[in-house]
Amino acid sequence: MGIIRVFKNKYKYVILFLFLIFISSTCQFYKINRSLDNYHEFATADQMLFSGNLLKYGLTATKGGQVNNINPLTGNFLYYTYHPPFATYVYALSFRIFGLSVLAGRLTSMFWFYLGVIILYILVSKIWDKKIALLTSFFYVFFPLSQYFGKIVFRDIILMPFIYLFIYFYYLWITKRTQNYFYLMLATLFLACLTDWPAYCLAPLIIIHFCWMLKNKDKRIFLLLIIEAFTLGVFLLHNYFLTGSFAGTQSQWPAYLGGKILGVFEHGISARLRWGILWSYSFYFRFLEYFLYSFTLTAILLIFYFCRKFNNFSKYTFYIFVPSTPFLYGIIFPGVSFDHMFYHFYLAATIAIICALAVSKFSKKFLILFCAVFLIFSVMNINVLYKMNNTSQDALMLGKIIPTISSPQEGVALSEPFYWPFIEYFGERKILYDVNNWERLSYIFTSGKVRYFITNFKDFQEYLIKRFPAVSLPDSFVLFDFFSQKK
Fold first, then answer.
1. Which domains does the chain have, with CATH numbers?
2. pLDDT of 278-322, one tens digit each?
3. CA 19: distance to chain centroid?
4. What pLDDT is stored for residue 9 in this prediction?
5. CB neighbours of residue 205 within 10 Å
6. pLDDT value at position 314?
7. Fewest CB atoms within 10 A around its CB: which of 127, 192, 261, 486?
8. How many angstroms separate the CA atoms of 459 and 226, rounded?
9. What confidence tens digit (pLDDT) does each residue in 316-364 have?
């Protein structure tokens, strides 16, 4: 009995943590096989498409790029060049082992999500203690946002463990001054930057903390900026290798027809920068809506309680907020945090730590009661998340109809704008977009490489319906067969 008691006392928090992981992961199997027509499942369609094409065509043929389409006019790959490709390689490796399926993708995401939870637990236990680490993990895994998006197939899930691991190695390096931790920190930052753009926010903040707050003059810390610059250079060179443009700019059309597909810089400015929305009330209302449904009202109340009771900033305050450093990317580019609820995932660790520190001051009975109330609110919010839907129903409809009316060898053209992930994912065809003027319509007809044309443009419909067989589709779309003349 004495040995068992010693074992329980020594490993009590580890056992509770593993039990927490088991319960949380079991809960995440809820609707794990749901279809790709829910809120933000375009992200899953994205990664499934990129990784599937990498397996289908091979690393050599795709040049390691993220292929989202094949141009029916030229037969060339059209690449997705807005984000680094490391997450695509991770999912492709998993699909190579377990087969290409949504279930395999979501299980892969769950593995990386819980890998991040384990690293966060170790990090918090090092900085504070195991009780705070356990409470942090409890809130983190049961936030509605975590339960919903913790299994979504997307690059942010792959990035989170690298962020926590980077902070962990940084903490060990500045406390133990061991050179190996510094090199591990550099390697982790390199992999994080290969995964997604928010990782680039880490180096500046760490350098400010190291040089200004810690007043350390070790110049090696600036190697972090060199790592980020090097990784960005690798990404741009890869874009040039894929498209002949550092920005990854491509075109579906001959030069005289225009139709340039935006590169990474133009896309960042036009779709993500959008500082004008900061002056709109809708931005703040949506942010509050996202925040409330992502973390629950109970967590928000704990944040207010923490701000009132913990007004003396300790030397560990930096580590409360540094896990959310990537959210700075959403502040610099407000279009990201406005359009994508899952981007608030980067706030989860900070809010979980704050909640853990706040409830650690509660009595045992009140702590249990509060956690039970939190779980009730979390379950209610998760159901709300599953009911929310901002998916383009037109994209879903077109994507699912295209394979029923065409064979894999037949090109399909749309008047819809490039690029809609659901169409490529479900369509599985060579698809041409942006047939939005008479010159392009004439070109695709005379090229003889596009058989089916789908449009909701009334003037196109009125002209073509007299010449080609037509099939009416939902939402005012009409399908025309260019290879058949109307009698």
1. 2-387 (no CATH), 393-481 (3.40.190)
2. 888 888 888 888 888 888 888 888 888 887 776 655 667 888 888
3. 28
4. 64
5. 15
6. 64
7. 486
8. 55
9. 788 888 898 888 888 888 888 777 777 888 999 999 999 999 898 888 8
- Which candidate, 45, 55, 161, 162, places its Cα nearest to that of 106? 45
DSSP element (H, E) containing 414: strand 411-414
**3-state SS assignment for residue 251:** strand
The answer to whether 464 and 485 have CB atoms below 8 angstroms apart is no
Nearest one of 6, 18, 283 to 134, comparing CA atoms: 18
Buried b / exposed e along 212-228 (16+ C-beta atoms within 10 A): eeeeeeeeebebbeebb
Query: Whole-angstrom Cα distance, residue 390 to residue 142?
Result: 24
Crossing angle (nearest 10°) for helices 102-127 and 86-98: 120
Neighbouring C-alpha atoms within 13 Å toward the C-beta of 478: 16
β-pairing, 478-481 vs 470-472, is: antiparallel
Could you tell me how far CA 327 lies from the centroid of its own chain? 13
How many residues does the structure list for the chain?
487
Q: What pLDDT score was predicted for residue 2?
A: 60
Contacts 24+ apart (CB under 8 A), 113-116: 113/146, 113/150, 113/151, 113/157, 113/160, 114/21, 114/24, 114/25, 115/161, 116/160, 116/161, 116/163, 116/164
How far is residue 46's CA from residue 54's CA, in Å, rounded to a whole number? 12
Number of other residues whose CB lies within 10 A of the CB of residue 86: 20
* 247 alpha-carbon distance from chain centroid: 21
Per-residue pLDDT tens digits for 202-227: 999 999 999 998 899 899 999 999 99
DSSP 467: T
List, as own/partner pairs, every contact residues 165-173 make where C-beta atoms lie below 8 angstroms and the sequence separation is at least 24, other chains included.
165/119, 166/192, 166/202, 167/123, 167/319, 167/322, 167/323, 168/119, 168/122, 168/123, 168/126, 170/206, 171/123, 171/126, 171/127, 171/319, 172/126
Q: What is d(CA 144, CA 285) in angstroms, rounded to the nearest whole number? A: 19
pLDDT at 262 over 70: yes
Helix (H) or strand (E) holding 373: helix 364-387
The beta strand positions in 204-307, using DSSP E, are 250-251, 260-261
* pTM beyond cutoff 0.90: yes
Helix (H), strand (E), coil (C) string for 22-76: HHHHHHHCCCCCCCCCCCCCHHHHHHHHHHHHHHHHCHHHHCCCCEEEECCCCCC
User: Please, are residues 410 and 61 in contact by the beta-carbon 8 Å criterion?
Assistant: no
